[in-house]
UniProtKB/TrEMBL annotation:
Name listed for the protein in its UniProt record: Per os infectivity factor 0 like protein
GO BP, sorted A to Z: viral life cycle
Organism: Argiope bruennichi
Residue stretches making up the Baculoviridae p74 N-terminal domain: 8-232
Annotated segments matching region Disordered: 215-248
Pfam families for this protein: Baculo_p74, Baculo_p74_N
Signal peptide: none
Amino acid sequence: MYGHISKLELDHALRYAEEATKVFLFDWSKTNFPDIFEHAKIEIRPATSKDYYIPSSIADKCIVVTETSFDEKACLLLACFPFKENLQKCEKSDRVQWVPLGQQHILACQPACFTSQTTVDAEWRNGKCVQVNPFKKMFAMLPERHLGLKSKQPFQDGLDFEEGKLKLNRKYCEAFGLSFVRGNCQPHEGQDFLEILFGKTIYRKILTKNVNVSKPSKPASVPDAFNNLPKKQNQPTDDLTVPDISEPKSDSVSNLAAEIAKELAADIGMDISLSILERLLKKQGPKLLKKATSKLVIKSVLIHSIVRISTSMAIASLKAMGKMVGGFTSLLAIYDLVAMVLDVMDPYNYDKVLDLKKLKDIDHQLDLQYYSREDNFDKEVTPEFLWDIVYSSNLES
């Protein structure tokens, strides 16, 4: 019957329209987003009967788009990470900038954050523009906050983010008193025993004494691709907010331990300061502990050496005050109680450190949450991707 269209004919017509629409959208995008799409590529070939039915009257218009892609400069310009250092939200007045992330720097507050209601984060990887999960960058920047901790560990700069994956780094591990071994945070040989002996908090505080607190060097300038771009028009597109992190303003372990010691001393009828313990740890502890890491058989020598030094200091101090106690037993008891309380309070979150297995689980969960799919987490960002995901609201209008 005249006017009746079969399913096969409809399928062929839709295929023709789909290919023609790609060309239309490419031209539309070059007009509306020239800074990005002047660095885009579209490849076209004539359609054949294997693609869809070709009416002779429009044979010259029947085409197939074989590929659309962006180059590295376009990938820079279309990407958006809308948070500055410490996850402060980018504002309209902010310029594109480098922000620290682990042992590197990433770009933030790019112009793309202000040009569309939907944004995408991307990076140039293996010759392609690849979608990036911004949740992972946010987690890597301040892992303690996302793990529900109240403060940031002061000696580390967050996790690394490489090839789309969260990675541990040496500085993160050492900040928690652990060694960085084959991409994982692990205790050094004999550390478990020494933490039982001295208490985890006190021993790891000794280990973190010499952690390098220097920051990774910032690139001299942002890429040239961001120069001479049009002024931003809209407000930031991402409404995610993350509370500010309040870092410890000073080394509070010694002060905290001293207060605990005073309370314990009062309870058991002694008047002794934790300064003895502090001097012990600073002067004698590191030297002896270093020996113990290689030879655990010196356990008894280690204990007696430390207690002997501590006892002599305690007796001298108490004699000057006209008091005398059995220093050996009493001092060791106070040390053990202080170490125990510190470990329970865990003021530096030593029990919350991530290892490789935990981080892989978190990495996968963040992918599932952000992409809402079970695989293909490294999807290429192409013009077709932007039309479907990012520019859809603009196209509807």
